[in-house]
Input
Amino acid sequence: MIALARQILVLFKLRIGVAMVLTATASLAVTPGPSPTGMQTFILALAVLLSAGAAGGFNHYFDYDIDARMSRTRNRPFVTGALQRSQKWLWILALLLTFSVAITAYAIHAIAAFHVFMGAFFYGIVYTAWLKRRTWLNIVIGGLAGSFAVLAGATTVTPHLTTVPYALALVLFLWTPSHFWSLAIALQEDYRQAGVPMLPVVAGNSVTAKAILFNTSLLVMASLIPFWYGMGWLYLFGAVAGGGLFLGRSLQLLWNPCRERAMSNFYASLIHLALLLSFAVLDKQDWAPLFSL
Output
């Protein structure tokens, strides 16, 4: 039973789902407006987790053939047979997505539900089914999935968004290519064997490293926009510290576009996002009572 539960969690890509929940709730926390109720916040988190799980499960279902040819993914449950790949899973995944959208529409409103749906749609259909096997732009366009998590959180506060949520959505959009292209350099042979046209497979490591540095530069500049539209110095510290680390590692990758530097840049991207979101939330806290003690 425990083994089955573990395989189901792998199927639903729990780590990605949790990352999307943290992104959505951080966006909720920094968006100006009336505070949602605790129940609304819980439902948003649950809906994002379930919709991301549905999209992740569809990714496993659709890509089972190429997953079998990649060392990183050959132990996924549909490949190993730990879970039987049948149409019942498509119904289960569709029900999960439908439920997540429905509870968001009921407990919050239709605009937030739309963004919950679009996040799953862009990862499951646009990225996985339409673009992944066709073009190196797959992860660029597919990166909008993370942006919709930001917008789902922000519209939970208010459907009338200001510049900051849109700027954070842009940050997530620009963060995704640098993050995944770094991983793609490290796993280039896997993607080549599977026939997936990730940028390093199509253009080589050197060109990809240049693209990563250019994209990361745009990312760091975009991450400064919220500071000019109401975010404070704590946010700026997180954005600069995380962005500086990511940019520095991207520059090192340009000098030596090898697997080790690519993985270093991949981890730097995670640190950058964690710092930016954490300090964004901290920036919006009321620290006056602490200093008045």
